[in-house]
Design brief:
Number of strands: 5
Number of domains: 2
Shape: elongated
Oligomer: single chain
Structural class: alpha+beta
Strand order of the largest sheet: 1-3-2
Bound molecules: zinc ion
CATH architecture of the largest domain: 2-Layer Sandwich
Distance between the termini: 82 Å
């Protein structure tokens, strides 16, 4: 009698699926990679990582802990590129703010100073 199985992860690259498999193996969880076609985009090759249903919860934890990139990396990256530096006090201000919350210098002031530098 076959044990119930569960798909816990989906990858576009077989190498990524194999990496997940090795992480699970290291944690003592038996897993398998199944190749198939995704529904969207249609006919794209995908690789599913399958484990016994009893192991599914633990397996998800192993994979989430195995990730080397923090979950909020995207937010952190956006903060790096989207802010502007206030000319009045050197504070990094959120891109959506038009006026520096620290000293009240406007973003427009920043542009005017750049124009003056060109002269
Ligand atoms: Zn300021």
């Amino acid at each position: 009698m076959a044990s119930p199985i569960e798909m816990i992860a989906e990858y576009e690259e077989e190498a990524e699926a194999r990496l997940a498999l090795s992480q699970l193996d290291a944690a003592g969880i038996h897993a398998e990679v199944h190749a198939g076609e995704s529904e969207y985009p249609p006919h794209a090759q995908v690789y599913w990582v399958i484990v016994a249903s009893d192991d599914a919860q633990l397996a998800r934890q192993v994979l989430s802990q195995g990730a080397t990139i923090p979950e909020d990396w995207e937010t952190a990256a956006e903060a790096c590129v989207e802010g502007w530096i206030c000319v009045g006090c050197d504070t990094e201000v959120d891109r959506q703010e038009m006026i520096c919350p620290q000293c009240g210098t406007s973003k427009e002031q920043l542009r005017q100073d750049e124009d003056e530098d060109d002269d």
